[in-house]
Write a structure and sequence with these properties.
The complex is a heterodimer of chains A (about 90) and B (about 400). Chain A has about 90 residues and is mostly helical. Chain A has helices at about 1-30, 60-75. Chain A is built from 2 helices and no strands. Chain A is elongated. Chain B is mainly beta. Classes of the chains: A mainly alpha (about 90), B mainly beta (about 400). The interface between A and B is large, with 51 and 102 residues.
Chain lengths: ~90, ~400
């Protein structure tokens, strides 16, 4: 049970630590943007962006596996993208 | 006064306006609004074959959305390992087989432009059990052109040893990530991701050993257990970009820089080209380069026993490069072939990896040839083939 308490404690610390940083980034970003700047790619201009070939990773099952191969054979880990997160293996 | 007559040209303008309005509505629907992942089933066979190691097995990932606000998934994954790697051969052991099974469940909750996610993973081997809890949040803003995401995961491992029933160690892994994705133009997306990992506990392999020189001995070298520090902290930053070419194809680039407090620095670069063809085919090609420096406490051959407190001879902690060349093909099945699904694809990806070690020598040579001294063996290298064959079904 101790490990679950430690996990919760760690999660709360992390949320506290990074929520403050996030607020600062957003506040800083909003205040520094001139009020005239608007999203420059309109919804009707996004057909290329919506094409499946423009996805960074189309198939999570395949991405998870190849990231596992890299992580098991390379010392580097982290920042693999949304499908990363560690394999929990030796 | 006569009623105004609608001319053929006016009908044409009206029809044109309706077509444009429908097109705009369609494209607006295709915009990058915050959405949950699609409902789909993936069944994958994976295989790694290289360096005397064969690992294959299945992975099944199923995902389902409920009430447009929650998406849940479950993943079953297995590794069937048959290994006679260089480490196994040098240790004098014979080929061994083992199995790793991993179960994951997770959920995403969508609220306005925010997606919150939570997941749990359990991995089990005969000498290693691991649990990972993860939470994350992502937020779209600036007209859905910008996505900010953050994540945290906690992994807790129980480490055993098949040759020693009394052996029991633990390890803990904390991962903190933050990412920003930005639509730059109507054809171009870029993202940056940062992740910090903090490990604590038993971080080494209980079976692996280092070797050291033994003067005037019948054997070319002696061996003793590795000894790693009990903490490791690393930072990684990755830049990714994807560009829609003037014709229907995409070019994706990725660069990642990594460093940790064990003294390892690594970089990898990848470029990937995706090219759809008519009649439901899609081709993909990629090149990836990886290089790293060794850990401070790594040595292929120590001068003597207990040469230093921390010592390692894991080739993954040495200085080396890895080049990967990959090809992939996807075929979308005809709609009437599996009518129960909205869309079905068959996918085959092959990656060829080449590992070249700069300070990890092939110790099998001095073991088998008495004329070759320890430390004078050729540097080790090997090639590996990685296969991903999978079927995906959208419903």
């Amino acid at each position: 049970m101790n490990r679950y308490k430690r996990a919760l404690n760690c999660i709360f610390k992390y949320i506290f630590k990074y929520s403050a940083a996030l607020c600062l980034i957003l506040l800083g970003g909003c205040s520094s943007l001139p009020s005239g700047i608007e999203p420059w790619v309109k919804p009707y201009e996004r057909q290329h962006l919506a094409d499946p070939i423009m996805s960074f990773e189309r198939d999570a099952v395949a991405t998870r596996y190849i990231n596992h191969v890299y992580e098991a054979r390379e010392a580097a880990r982290g920042a693999e993208g949304s499908a990363g997160g560690g394999c929990g293996c030796n | 006064m006569a009623a105004t007559e609608i001319t053929p040209a006016a009908w044409l303008r009206l029809a044109l306006a309706l077509v444009i309005a429908a097109l705009v509505a369609l494209l607006a629907k295709m915009s990058l609004a915050t959405v949950l992942p699609e409902d789909r089933l993936d069944i994958l066979y994976h295989s790694f074959d290289g360096g005397g190691v064969t690992i294959d097995g299945p992975s099944v990932l199923v995902r389902k959305e409920f009430a447009d606000t929650v998406s849940v998934y479950a993943n079953y994954y297995a590794d069937y390992v048959s290994s006679a790697s260089i480490d196994v051969e040098v240790s004098g052991a014979s080929r061994y087989a083992e199995e790793r099974t991993e179960y994951s469940v997770g959920a995403e909750y969508l609220h306005d432009r925010t997606i919150m996610n939570v997941s749990y993973t359990n991995s089990s081997e005969n000498d290693y059990d691991a649990e990972t809890f993860a939470v994350g949040v992502s937020q779209d803003f600036f007209g859905d052109l910008t996505t900010l995401s953050m994540g945290f995961s906690l992994g807790q491992d129980d480490v055993g040893n098949n040759t020693d029933e009394t052996f029991a160690e633990e390890a803990e892994h904390r991962r903190y990530s933050i990412g920003l994705s930005q639509v730059l133009t109507k054809n171009w997306i870029a993202s940056i991701g940062l992740e910090t990992v903090a490990d604590e506990g038993f971080l080494q392999n209980p079976y692996r050993f280092v070797r050291f020189l033994v003067p005037f001995s019948a054997t070319p070298f002696g061996t003793e257990a590795e000894n790693y520090p009990e903490t490791r902290n690393s930072d990684a930053v990755a830049l990714r970009t994807i560009y829609y070419l003037p014709y229907r194809a995409a070019l994706r680039g990725e660069y990642r820089n990594y460093n940790d407090n064990w003294g390892i620095e690594a970089d990898n670069f990848e470029i990937r080209y995706t090219h759809p063809l008519k009649s439901n085919w899609m081709l993909e090609a990629k090149l990836r380069f990886y290089k790293q420096t060794k850990a401070d406490f790594y040595s292929d051959l120590f001068e003597f026993r207990n040469a230093q407190e921390f010592r390692a001879r894991d080739k993954e902690l040495s200085t080396y490069t890895n080049r990967t060349f990959g090809l992939g093909v996807t075929y979308q099945l005809k709609a009437d072939f599996l009518s129960a699904f909205e869309k079905s694809t068959v996918n085959l990806y092959w990656d060829h990896m080449q590992f070249d070690y700069d300070d990890f020598r092939d110790a099998r040579v001095s073991l088998n040839d008495p004329t070759v001294n320890a430390g004078e063996e050729p540097l080790y290298s090997f090639d590996a083939d990685v296969i991903r064959l999978y079927f995906s079904f959208w419903y």
